[in-house]
Write a structure and sequence with these properties.
Elements: H1 2-6, H2 20-34, H3 36-40, H4 45-59, H5 67-81, H6 83-98, H7 104-122, H8 125-134, H9 148-187, H10 195-209, H11 212-222
Helix pairs in contact: 4-5, 4-9, 6-7, 7-9, 8-9, 9-10
């Protein structure tokens, strides 16, 4: 990339040339885009996606909704939940960077505190203590003094556990339906008819009647308040 910028023909209009400072800005922005999956791990995206996949498995619908639909819904909810933190990042890092008051590296430093505060709010103390011990980081006076390399994996571990807990709770009512249908079909001697053929429509019907998507999304949003 740097080679391409360095070999811009001299005859191009000045508006198309890139200054030295802008080169590093573009490089850092490209690096951020490349690391977007890692950045998403520091947001509610992980918990939301885990819960959605558990819900789909519990309903027995296999590939409905599709992965693209679930990922899109998780992204929209992630931006909704992260809006206060993103506004703070916009004010403290993005706007000063655009005004030329700070450089890219300073902007990255100022963008970390809102994300760190958000992750510390939902990271378990047990997970934080684990990574503090493994990384041999000196015990901080306050959680805000913890480095991002400790907070981020601890938060991800906590989110995975929370997602699995919510997924297990979602599984229970649908598991009961599967067991009831299986015992009824077996007692009636319907050995050739797979229970899933009957239980899947019943689970979908129950989910629709109780307005399941509204309940699930509402519970997930309230878990981040």
């Amino acid at each position: 990339m740097l080679f391409l910028f360095a070999t811009v023909p001299a005859g191009l209009p000045s508006s198309l040339t890139v200054k030295g400072d802008n080169i590093w800005t573009i490089v850092v922005l490209m690096l951020v885009l490349t690391m977007l999956p890692i950045v998403l791990c520091m947001t509610p995206f992980v918990r939301l996606l885990v819960v959605f996949h558990f819900l789909r498995q519990a309903l027995g619908t296999q590939s409905t909704p599709s992965n693209q639909t679930l990922i899109g819904l998780a992204l929209f909810l992630t931006f909704f939940i992260m809006q206060p933190a993103l506004v703070t990042v916009q004010q403290n890092a993005v706007e000063p960077l655009q005004a030329g008051k700070i450089d890219v590296w300073k902007a990255l430093d100022q963008a970390q505190p809102p994300l760190r505060d958000f992750m510390l709010k939902y990271a378990r103390e047990k997970d934080l203590a684990l990574f503090v011990e493994v990384s041999k980081t000196p015990r901080p006076r306050t959680p805000q003094d913890l480095p991002l390399r400790v907070v981020a994996p601890a938060y991800l571990l906590s989110e995975l556990k929370a997602g699995f807990q919510i997924g297990a709770v979602l599984f229970l009512p649908f598991l009961v339906i599967d067991m009831v249908v299986a015992s009824i079909t077996t007692s009636m001697g319907m050995m050739q008819l797979p229970p899933v053929v009957i239980s899947t429509p019943l689970k979908i019907l129950l989910f629709v009647l109780v307005d399941g998507w509204n309940l699930v999304i509402g519970s997930l949003l309230k878990s981040f308040q």
